[in-house]
Write a structure and sequence with these properties.
Keywords: Plasmid. InterPro entries: Sig_transdc_resp-reg_C-effctor, WH-like_DNA-bd_sf. One of its GO terms (molecular function) is DNA binding. This protein is of the alpha+beta class. Helices cover 41% and strands 20% of the residues. The chain has 5 helices and 8 strands; from the N terminus they run E-E-E-E-E-E-E-H-E-H-H-H-H. Strands 3, 4, 5, 6, 7 and 8 form a 6-stranded antiparallel beta sheet that branches. Helix 2 (95-108) packs across helix 3. The chain starts with 10 loop residues before the first strand and ends in a 10-residue tail after the last helix.
């Protein structure tokens, strides 16, 4: 679970920074497959390039240099993380990568739109703050607020529907359950 400190001061996966503000990049994972030529490399979602890139992080320069990419045309962050996760090398995901994979699953079930799923997964499911979520997604805090409100409304409606449906199945003689 992330802490409330700014993302650029947080480190995961063998001390890689979660956020590189100068490159507008967020850590989504790293390759741990010793048999791969990419062994030990970091994977960052680079906003201005719209994709997940795999390469080396240089501590002295506080900079990431990419060597590979997922080569996925879809620019949505969760889709890029899914493509990284589907690569046939052993890898591990950062807390941001895990949250964005959750977002991919939410959006795939069509429970909510991709952008709403990103905010919902980062904040409600994985504990990122409003400010951290805005940094991760490269959006304003007010955009985070509006996407979260929409996502929460959809999630609450889904929970209510499921509860009503379950009650109706368990008590088929109670016709008042599906009436308003």
């Amino acid at each position: 679970m992330p802490t409330a400190s700014p993302l650029q001061h947080q480190r995961e996966l063998d001390e890689l920074p979660l956020y590189l503000p100068e490159q507008n990049a967020v850590l989504v994972g790293r390759i741990i497959d010793d048999e791969s030529e990419m062994a030990g490399m970091a994977a960052y979602y680079v906003h201005w390039r719209g994709g997940v890139y795999i390469g080396n992080y240089n501590e002295a320069d506080n900079a990431f240099t990419s060597h590979y990419s997922t080569k996925l045309e879809e620019r949505m962050m969760s889709h890029q993380v899914k493509a990284f996760d589907d690569m046939e090398v052993e890898k591990e995901l950062s807390s941001i990568g895990e949250a964005l994979l959750d977002a991919y699953d939410f959006a795939e079930t069509q429970a909510m739109a991709d952008k709403q799923a990103h905010v919902f997964a980062l904040q409600s499911m994985n504990g990122f703050t409003r400010s951290q979520t805005a940094n991760i997604l490269n959006v304003s805090p007010s955009t985070v607020d509006s996407q979260r409100a929409s996502a929460t409304k959809k999630a609450d409606a889904a929970v209510a529907f499921t509860a009503t449906y379950t009650e109706k199945k368990e008590n088929p003689d109670n016709e008042d359950l599906l009436k308003h």
